[in-house]
Amino acid sequence: NAGVTQTPKFQVLKTGQSMTLQCAQDMNHNSMYWYRQDPGMGLRLIYYSASEGTTDKGEVPNGYNVSRLNKREFSLRLESAAPSQTSVYFCASGWTVQETQYFGPGTRLLVL
Amino acid sequence: DQQVKQNSPSLSVQEGRISILNCDYTNSMFDYFLWYKKYPAEGPTFLISISSIKDKNEDGRFTVFLNKSAKHLSLHIVPSQPGDSAVYFCAASEQEYNNNDMRFGAGTRLTVKP
Fold first, then answer.
1. Which residues of A touch B98 (CB under 8 A)?
2. Neighbouring C-beta atoms of residue B12, cutoff 10 Å
3. Which of A51, A76, B47, B72 is most buried when burial is the number of CB atoms within 10 A of its CB?
């Protein structure tokens, strides 16, 4: 039982490049989330998926797109990376939006 | 505008003593509060929570206190152990427990010295 897994662990991009961050959970959770954490700031919600087939914007969605591929997987895409998107990205999942969420180990992204 | 603030980036305490981590918030609509704990290279894990209808919640060595009038909550760890060394985040939401609108503080790094 791996919980929430994220790939890659670390990535360096050049400005304008695109990439997809992958997240998978094996706990049969319905809801999944993407957060970013910047120095001196708390986690901020980018997008979430309350259930398979639905996605909604969080606090800071600009510059990102998401796909809830199936119940297990929730990906985050940066179409044209910017230095302001340098951050640590965390994926999380939970049974519902009103229950405890479980976080993955994070992806550290550096955009030059 | 950060609605949840942890003004102490770091805290160091001796093993066996009490650790007190503080958190202030500005949004009077928050009614559910949580603490998360994060070790290096891992994601945050849920530690303890409190609803606004209470002023204290205890779970083993961990106690969270809520002072609604002061918009302040604190996490007490007694006694502190070296394994408690981690970053602690407080978080708050408006709608009972709701992950969609949760706001997090920037975290306090606790170091417990043997």
1. 97-98
2. 11
3. A76
Taken as a whole, chain A contains a residue count of 112
Per DSSP, which regions of A40-97 are E strands? 44-49, 56-57, 65-68, 74-78, 87-94
CA distance B72 to B94: 15
Tell me what percent of the residues of chain A surpass a pLDDT of 90. 88
Residues 6 or more apart whose Cβ sits within 8 Å of residue B32: B49, B50, B51, B52, B92, B93, B94, B95, B96, B97, B98
Does the distance separating the beta carbons of A58 and B44 come in below 8 Å? Answer: no
